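wait is this the right file?? whatever heres the structure
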């Protein structure tokens, strides 16, 4: 097991990223990325994945993080990819068939959460990117995924994606967006009383206010270590 290599793929609203790690989380293949295709249909995404990993070193298993609700490897919703074609699409089966290796597909924030969380108490990992991703873990165990991003958070039934997602950031600007992030952190703190909160995603670097001691900014590269850990959990 220690010598196995895992291809880890992170499908995002803007880019598709991939690397190869060993089971200890050591990077074997440098991080590579390609723009997420438009339109982001399953077929176009699969073609991009194949193009991205062409020439990668040998690997034995595949882990994929996907920006939507995933159940047993099947995509149920994919709001940030903008097409209904993903509904009930067996991404896990199709990637395994395409690349001819066993595959696990989970929500992207869940995979990030496994890579980032320290396994101490109740931890939450959120991602600030095209949308708002969340993962919840207790003592290192990944809890059932919640599409918390689609819970109403503001007037007119605005959900978290609309309130603090990429479109809101571009429309409202850094200062107003940061005020919204402060409000969201307050909600998480009150509702969940977490032991530690990790904030990742492309827009995490835009946070400009002082964070509590139990809040840490993390990178996507740290989260990619969740790919090998998916297989450890499966064991």
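ok assuming it is, sequence goes like this
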């Amino acid at each position: 097991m220690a010598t196995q290599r895992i291809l880890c793929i992170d499908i995002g609203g803007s880019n598709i990223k991939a690397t190869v790690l060993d089971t200890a989380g050591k990077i074997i293949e440098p991080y590579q990325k390609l723009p997420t295709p438009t339109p982001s249909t399953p077929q176009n995404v699969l073609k991009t994945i194949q193009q991205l990993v062409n020439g990668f070193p040998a690997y034995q298993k595949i882990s994929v993080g996907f920006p939507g609700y995933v159940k047993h490897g099947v995509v149920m919703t994919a709001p940030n990819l903008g097409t209904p074609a993903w509904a009930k699409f067996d991404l896990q089966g199709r990637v395994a068939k395409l690349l001819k290796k066993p595959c696990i597909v989970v929500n992207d924030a869940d995979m990030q959460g496994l890579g980032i969380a320290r396994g101490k108490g109740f931890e939450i990992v959120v991602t600030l990117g095209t949308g708002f991703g969340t993962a919840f873990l207790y003592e290192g165990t990944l809890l059932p995924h919640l599409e918390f991003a689609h819970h109403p958070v503001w007037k007119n039934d605005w959900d978290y994606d609309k309130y603090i997602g990429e479109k809101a950031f571009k429309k409202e600007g850094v200062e107003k967006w940061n005020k919204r992030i402060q409000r969201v952190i307050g909600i998480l703190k009150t509702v969940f009383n977490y032991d530690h909160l990790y904030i990742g995603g492309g827009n995490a670097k835009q946070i400009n206010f002082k964070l509590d001691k139990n809040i840490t900014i993390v990178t996507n590269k740290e989260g990619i270590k969740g790919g090998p850990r998916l297989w450890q959990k499966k064991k």
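The longest strand covers residues 27-35. so i think its the right one actually
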